[in-house]
Amino acid sequence: MLPLVTTLLAAAVLRIYLIARDSVPFAYDMGRDLLWTKDIVFYQTPTLIGPAASIWGVYFGPLWFYFLSVPLLITGGHPLSVVFATATIILATGILSYILFKKILGNFFALVVVIFILFGSTLVNISTFAFHANVLPLLTILMIYFCYLAIIKKTIYIAFAFLSTSLMFHADPAPAVVSTFIPLITLVIFKLYKSKDFPKTILYSAIAFAVPFIPQILFEIRNDFIQTKSLTTYFLGQNPSLSGRLPFFERVENRIGVFFDFFKNSMAGQTQLLALLFLAGISFGLYSFFQKTKAPNLKVFLHLNLLTLVITFVIFTLVVTVEVKQWYLYGVPVVFANLATLALYKRKIWQVVIFLSVFVVANVFPLVSVALRRASANDPANLRNQLSAIDAIYSDAADPFSVYVFTPSIYDHNYQYLFWWQGVKLKRGLPQDFAYLPNQPDYVRNKNFYTPIAQKSNTVYLIIENATENQFYTKENWLANFADHQVIWEKDINNALTVQKRQQ
Questions:
Q1: pTM of the model
Q2: Which residues, 6+ apart, have CB-to-CB distance to 137 below 8 Å?
């Protein structure tokens, strides 16, 4: 138990350190999610849908918003609370993997899985920001485990695997669709359909899969089946979300590169040579494991993880013709961890220790090195920079004022949330207007709940991100909207942001 506790503490300290060293990005997605969540928590406006999906007119399930509502409620809306909650999810994934797999692998190799999960670069990095896809590692672990139980114990456990994949639709529909095929194919490959309990299994699986969709179903009924219509146009090839499709052979090449890069980032700290060595070593270890092991349960565990990896690759290659977003693969590092552990299974202790030592150093050292250099200090998305810009405004403002933000993404959802938190929850007062430009239609849900009655203000503050510009939305054109306002002063925030005070 002591090695496990020590590992968990080290993983927790690493994440706290990275967050404390300003590695927290607070951009569009996180700002959008917190705007919706604060409505649930502080204005009692529940929702039946979650974030918008890549397919126009389609939405995730709302579970992510309700999860975020807990830390926001406890902390009074502090944006870092949801980051620590996300880090807790990843730590919980490690704990759960140990609990579930110690009977399969034994205590020592269950701990090896935990180390691979908690210290791989990908799962460390996603611990430093709140994003809906960050729950995929946890749900992937559960899906694999319940498929395993369905094979070696009772077929009925496959219903829990379907429940896990259904919950993924609240995290991101794209990987959820892919993962749904895994329990389905498990039923076929492992001949679970021959079980006497199969009819009952199918019924329970259907119910388990359907229950998490209840909020979206209610939303469809209330909104003229808008998502159903959007999905129909998508599959008919009439939805603009289909743009950017790759030809088949180009797509195969692309996917091989995407999956290798993800393996490199998850296992080798982005070091290509080490990634190739790891890949070769793990492949050889798995071949040796398959040849030598006599334990059927271990072989089942191996087959399930290989099945998960292969199906994920095949579906994203053959079916998904557009770009594969990085977060679609957030569940894959736990598969890498399981396979790497099986490759080391029954190896000499010193060989396992050397492999793990190289793995930890390769993944952790670059992260700590970047944090020590504060490499994110000049990043416009850095939360501390954004709060410094807001503090500069509040420290100066005396008369009624307005604030406008230039960001290449156009919509300033992150600043919308921060001004709400600073102005309402911390009682610093709100600007007369705060948006990306004056006189814009409402693009923030329920903003009228807390904004003051609009009054003309001659004083405006501009927050300008020093970032790569959108060619269709340039800084020059944006500043032209304030040409009749004289610059009173200008302040630089870590070469990341510029704050201007202007008066008409």
A1: 0.93
A2: 89, 90, 93, 117, 123, 330, 331, 333, 334
